[in-house]
Amino acid sequence: MKVTVLGLGYVGSVASAALARSGHEVLGLDIQRGVAEDLGKGRVVGFEPGLTELLEKGLESGRLQFAHVDDGDRGQAALVLVCVGTPSLSTGSANLTYVRSALQWAVEHEPNAVAVVMKSTVPPGTGLRLSTQYLEGTGIEYVSNPEFLREGNAVHDWAHPDRIVIGASTQRATDCVKELYGDVHA
Questions:
Q1: Per-residue pLDDT tens for 106-162?
Q2: Do 39 and 9 contact (CB within 8 A), yes or no?
Q3: Nearest 5°: phi and psi at 175?
């Protein structure tokens, strides 16, 4: 399956490399050109055991590519994973600026996607509001698929989760996201 991953921090970089290992064709995109370029050369920022090797294998296989969000081949993905930051505002609530930008990007650049898959941490009820605001009438579904990755153990946690949570309103979207994890036992 073709997958676009928006945001290449530790969640997005691990998700990209792990999905490529599972046989999916993955395009990882970031707003920071240097981040995408480094990952495209197999260079990992920070410490994440196993990620460098996973990246190298994905890049060598041709199933994994990275680019700046304004570059890269688009319009082909079945799923768009949103892995962007949600930093806290001074009020303590989540800043959803990057999430909103990612949803807008998905609608504009991946109009044939089955679903936008939210991996970013968002407050309860956000999915319904964002779905109504950005996806209504587009044919793109909103799926909640929270990550449970521990920094420093993320590669291991992706391959050996104790649970995978998929929250979707249609069986079509659920089945599509379940396909991402076909080789993962949880």
A1: 999 999 999 999 999 999 999 999 999 999 999 999 999 999 999 999 999 999 999
A2: no
A3: -65, -40
Query: Are the C-beta atoms of 3 and 43 separated by less than 8 Å?
Result: no
Burial of 118 (0-12, 13-18, 19+ CB in 10 A): buried
CB atoms within 10 A of CB 8: 26
Count Cα atoms within 13 angstroms, Cβ side, for 122. 23
Q: H-type helices in the chain, by residue range?
A: 10-21, 33-40, 51-61, 97-109, 126-130, 154-159, 171-180
The answer to whether the CB of 117 falls within 8 A of the CB of 80 is: yes
DSSP code of residue 150: P
3-state helix, strand, coil in the chain (%, to 5): 40, 15, 45
